[in-house]
Amino acid sequence: MNPLEIPEIVIKRLPLYLRTLELMADEGQTVTSSQELGGRLGISSTQIRKDLSYFGEFGKQGTGYDIRFLRGQLRGILQVDRPWKVALIGVGDVGHALLRFIGFEDRGFSIAAIFDKDPQKVGRRVDKLTVLDVATLHEVIRRRGIRMAIIAVPACEAQGVADALLGAGVGAILTYAPTLLRLPPHMRVSYLDPVVGLQSMTYYLSPSRP
Amino acid sequence: MNPLEIPEIVIKRLPLYLRTLELMADEGQTVTSSQELGGRLGISSTQIRKDLSYFGEFGKQGTGYDIRFLRGQLRGILQVDRPWKVALIGVGDVGHALLRFIGFEDRGFSIAAIFDKDPQKVGRRVDKLTVLDVATLHEVIRRRGIRMAIIAVPACEAQGVADALLGAGVGAILTYAPTLLRLPPHMRVSYLDPVVGLQSMTYYLSPSRP
Fold first, then answer.
1. Would you state the pLDDT for residue A97?
2. Partner B contacted by A98 (CB < 8 A)
């Protein structure tokens, strides 16, 4: 099947399956089922089987899924069985939290360059990295072949940064800035907006609902 | 229609529609279409019309949607036309970034209580709030009738905090901790995991794909 024919919503669920399998493996579990995976994620087992069937046969009727095998398959499909270099733009609170976040390296990503526009921050070292001037973004990203970036700047600066990333050849952006980015369709964008997360739950919380 | 019969995936898209409508309204736009909304969000116009049809008729064939009207309707459906008190647990980098985030108040939420376990932080003021000892979490949340919480503590502490929130009567948790929480099905949980966001895009980035 042409990879572009698989619905995007299916692709977006695969990282959730992968995360759950990784946690199960960490806990020493070796086999799981679509029922168990679904129960942990709030997704029906039918949906999980249907999603996985786009990519092949991963489980056996009655015996379930071998966790290590399925984890490896999903890593391959999502292409996180290789390390991706990621640029981080904005070394404020969110940026610092991300640099301290230990979950990137063993899940397919490596923060390879960090940028800020604040002269007080440029040149400072944060862990193994030196904060670079955002004015050098284009050159550094091009030279190092970086294809992904995380935007952690204020909302009013996010579009300018996104435009610069587009020009430098970045193909996918994860943004924490609470603003919609205007970018051509070939640029992948993923939003981490806490309000969207909260608003998707209030629907179920009303005292007037059963 | 019974509100619980509407697929959860539909409910999860409504905040994205609402955010886009809010941005359009901020920019002075008054009317939009399912095509335009879809184009901005990477969702098909058919999907948008189908999602909205669960809740009624919001647009007219040929004239599109009145942005202020549809925004008001979605706020009502999602119940963010009233303020929800939210507790924040963990006043580290992520917690500080959230406290500085200005997008909560006018979108239905108010950070009403902040907690940490670090004696160095307890009692300190951050903006209008005083950091409370996490040992008082149960009592404060009960007394103030708080139903929602954001977890911004390290992964190893997240389950303990989640259990305490459950016991205190919280019904929905947004968590930044990179670990799967084990909670009963009636507790709503939303994960903000940067790796899941990145992994949902690498699929499309391969140099071997067209």
1. 86
2. yes
* Banded model confidence at residue A63, pLDDT cuts 50, 70, 90: confident
Q: Are A130 and A124 in contact (CB under 8 A)?
A: yes
| CB atoms closer than 10 angstroms to residue B58 | 16
Stretch 13-52 of chain B: residues touching chain A, C-beta under 8 Å? 14-16, 18-20, 23, 40, 42
**Does 1.10.10.10 match the CATH number of domain B3-78?**
yes
Q: Where in chain A is the domain with CATH 1.10.10.10?
A: 3-78
Render pLDDT for B140-184 as a digit per residue (tens, 0 to 9): 999 999 999 999 998 889 999 999 999 999 999 999 987 778 899
ipTM: 0.89
Kindly state the DSSP code that residue B185 receives in the 8-state scheme: T
| Residue B1 touches partner A, C-beta closer than 8 Å | no
What is the sign, positive or negative, of the torsion defined by CA atoms of A178, A180, A184, A188?
A: positive
Domain B84-196: CATH architecture, name and number where available: 3-Layer(aba) Sandwich (3.40)
